Amino acid sequence: MEGDIANMGQFIGAGIAGLGAGLAALGVGNVAGNFLSGALRNPSAAAGQTATLFIGIAFAEALGIFSFLVALLLMFAV
Question: What is the pTM of this model?
Answer without folding.
Answer: 0.72
